[in-house]
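A.,

Following up on our hallway conversation. Structure tokens first:
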């Protein structure tokens, strides 16, 4: 039997993107009717990182404008909506609160059901929206704020197999760019320079590969790159373009080695439990990195597993993933009032040991 189609407005404001989207779907397939994302990069650029107060204020100022734009682009009115879904964590609390307050106001004014959505669940469920992927599957979330391997069993059932114990990879890419005086966001810049660099010139570490399991650590790699840079500066009193390119290449190669090996281990653990569903998906901005993506694809090919990567605009922070998660949650019983409490930390797998560390983009729960 065909499930009833639902039309849901999604709202996202947990980090440095103000976003609203309208998605229509039946829980098996969905269509993105609109997806509006306003980045805040320019506002934070002078400070070298996301400033929570500035982010919160910008979300508060821009959210209703983004919601109007998303509704207009989707050509729907509030009467056409079945519900509203809003990110209620984890993230920078001021921004999360801006979104939750707006969503509560809209839902109360229009008499619509409201659901609180976990931002990480939004990322983790995206391959179902884009590729109709069936449960279960293995997901690697890899962005500026997150890095974890999750088994996705259902809209609310996740098992975390491992994650970073300090920096997220995108955060490390951004810091490397900063120490080489490249513009932000650093990931694409480092990738561009790395293409012309020699990855073997600097012997950078592959942290935690000697430890069993799929936890990761990137702060030592970042520090090693900083030391390598300072050693060249001390020797030659400056960096040439080739020095920069070689450092970028060495750093990216180390990152790719670690992610590929940990993905191989996570996939082995996943396949041991779910041999009938060999599927691996990535989400997050770092999944845009071609050399990392190629390595992950190779791991999947080796292990006879299908590889899924949502298009980049649905891979990075957006509200369509929140609306879609809302559809899945609505179809399977709705969310509780507790899900509407704005919270900075909200691990998807509450049975797993907490990850340590909270980066510049907020908690990595
Ligand atoms: O998913 P995303 O938009 O969410 C946040 O964490 O905000 O990811 C952004 C991150 C940034 O740290 C950016 O430097 C990184 O993803 N990134 C990349 C690439 N493109 C974006 N990292 C490496 N290579 C890339 N091509
Ligand atoms: Zn995100």
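Then the amino acids I'd put at each of the 365 positions:
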């Amino acid at each position: 039997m065909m499930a009833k189609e639902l039309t849901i407005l999604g709202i996202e404001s947990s980090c440095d993107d103000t976003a609203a989207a309208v998605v229509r779907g039946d829980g098996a397939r969905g269509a993105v009717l609109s997806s509006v994302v306003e980045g805040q990069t320019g506002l934070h650029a002078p400070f070298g990182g996301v400033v929570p107060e500035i982010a919160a204020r910008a979300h508060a100022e821009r959210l209703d404008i983004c919601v109007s734009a998303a509704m207009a682009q989707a050509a729907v009115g509030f009467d056409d909506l079945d519900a509203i879904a809003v990110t209620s964590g984890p993230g920078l609390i001021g921004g999360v609160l801006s979104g939750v307050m707006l969503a509560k106001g809209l839902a109360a004014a229009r008499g619509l059901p409201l659901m609180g959505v976990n931002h990480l669940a939004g990322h983790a469920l995206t391959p179902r929206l884009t590729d109709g992927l069936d449960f279960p599957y293995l997901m690697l979330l890899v962005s500026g704020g997150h890095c974890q391997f999750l088994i996705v069993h259902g809209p609310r059932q996740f098992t975390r197999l491992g994650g970073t114990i300090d920096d997220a990879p995108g955060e490390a890419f951004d810091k490397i760019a900063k120490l080489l005086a490249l513009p932000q966001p650093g990931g694409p810049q480092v990738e561009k320079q790395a293409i012309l660099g020699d990855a073997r010139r600097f012997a950078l570490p592959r942290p935690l590969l000697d430890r069993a399991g799929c936890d990761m650590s990137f702060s030592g790699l970042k520090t090693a790159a900083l030391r390598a840079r300072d050693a060249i500066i001390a020797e030659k009193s400056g960096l040439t373009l080739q020095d920069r390119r070689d450092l970028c290449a060495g750093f990216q190669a180390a990152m790719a080695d670690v992610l590929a090996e940990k993905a191989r281990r996570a996939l082995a653990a996943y396949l041991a439990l779910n041999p009938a569903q060999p599927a691996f998906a990535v989400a997050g901005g770092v999944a845009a990195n071609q050399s990392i993506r190629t390595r992950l694809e190779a791991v999947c090919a080796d292990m006879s597993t299908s590889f899924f990567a949502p298009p980049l605009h649905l891979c990075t922070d957006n509200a369509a993933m929140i609306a879609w998660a809302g559809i899945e949650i609505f179809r399977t019983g709705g969310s509780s009032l507790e899900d509407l409490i704005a919270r900075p930390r909200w691990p998807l797998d509450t049975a797993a040991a907490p990850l340590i560390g909270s980066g510049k983009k907020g908690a990595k729960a």
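The first helix runs from residue 41 to 44. Curious whether your intuition agrees with the design.

B.
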